[in-house]
Structures are given as C-alpha cells and as structure tokens.
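Many introductory courses stop at the sequence. We go one step further.
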Amino acid sequence: MSDVSLSSVKNFPNIFKSFFELMKPRVMSLVIFTALVGIVIAPAKPDFIVAAISLFFVALGAGAAGALNMWYDAEIDGIMSRTCLRPIPLGKVTNKHALIFGTVLSFVSVIGLYWFSNLLAAIILAITILFYIFVYTIWLKRSTPQNIVIGGAAGSFPPVIGWAISTNSISIEPIVLFLIIFLWTPSHFWALSLYKNEDYKKAKIPMLSVVSGEEVTKKNILFYSIILWPVTLAPYFLNFASYSNLIFSSFFGLFYIFLSFKLLITKAKPASHKIARNIFVYSIFYLFFIFSTILIDNYFFI
C-alpha cells in the first residue's frame, strides 16, 4: 500500500466526522425526534423495522438540507463567530464536495423514504428539503427580517412526515404539531440574534434585531411566546395528549412568557443579553418537554 493510500485510510475518521458535521447533527436529532412523535401519535402504526428505516431516511434528508445550507452559506459562515468553525470555513470540506454530498443525500433520502414508506411521506420530505434550501437559505435569509418566520416552516414538517409514514395521510394532529414548531421558531432564533447581533451585522443578514433594533425584537419575542402558549395546549383538547401534557405545557409556556416579558423590560445590554441567551437555551427544553409528554402519553397511556 502506498504512503498516499495509508494516509487516506488513517485520515478516514476525520473525513467522516467532517461530512457528518455538514449534516448539522443537532438539528438532525430534533428532526428525528419530532418525526418519531408524528409516527407514534398516528392511529395506524407501521412495522418497527419500516418505521426505523423510514426515520433513517428522514434523518438523511435533514442532513442533506444541512449540507446544502452550509454549501450556500459558506462565505457568511466564515464571517460569523458562531459558524466559523464549520467544516467548509475550516477547509475540511470543499464547497464542491459539500454540494455533491448534499445533492446525493437529498435524492437518496427521498427515494429511500418512498421505497420503504409511501409517496406522500417522500413528497413532504422533498418539499421540506427544497423549501429549506431555495425558499429559506437562498431567498429569505438574505432578503427579509421575516426570514426565520416564513423559513421556520421547513423545520416544522417532520411530525407531518412521521404521521404520513404511519397513515399515508395528513390530519389535524400533525398540523397542530407543525404549528407548535412553526410558532416556536421565531422567538427561539430571535433570542439568539439578540446576543449574536454583531455576527449578523457583519454577515449582512437582515435579522429583525439588525433591521428593526432590540426593542422591536423583544416585543416580537414576547408576542410569539404568547400566541405559542394556547397552541401547545391544543393536543390535550384534541384528545391526543393527556392531562400531564396539559400541565407541563401550561407551566413551561407561562414561564417562557415570563422570561420573554422580563427580557422586554430589561434595558441594560449585558443583563438583557444574558436573559436572551437563557431564553434561547430554555426554548430548546420547552419544545423537547412538550413533544416528550405527547410521545409518552401516546406510547404508554393513550
């Protein structure tokens, strides 16, 4: 074996890690989890092996969208401190390889989901990938402060895909889950933008905090935290979650509103940025607990 071949073999773990990072594994894990909830709450359950393989292809689709997003955003990723350590800015993966990788994964994920599940689920996955790349990444992200509001739809589709995997249909239940994620997304990312505002300014991304200022952003965070709360209670009133979900959703939602209100009335920047960071972190747990209680309710009790 030549020295070049030996070097390639030894470097394989690092290459694999770099391409895996392209897939945005943290986002991918959220997609898998929310899609799983869609599968579990459906009245018809697929075979375990079919469900597992289908979730694998959904994960690949999410990873494909992440890779294509990093391909297109490589320049601004290199500017922002939050994203400058991603594989392309660091030179671990070339732009061309990221584009090929993301494109191939997109086709494999959609075709694989169609083969092992059904056409409807595959179509929704394809729409999700295309929406994230063309509508959010290429169009909205650089053109409007409402980028994360409209673009948030891409991250809201997984429970709908999960339901479609189980039933080959769409119903009110996955639509409610879609709305929960859709209404959660703006406040989650606007909180991030408040304490990373300079990053977005440098990259010339028209986030709400950059275009309209902190005060307007804080008001919008509070507004979305308020309108999200009743939607998180809907699963109980539509009979696909139990009383425990109602209690958790009520408590966590009211605390989220409290944090958002506290952010609005806090004027000093160091303190307000700390609260914004707390909102960003808390919002992840908030969404996780809402979906976890729905999952547990349907798996064990309903």
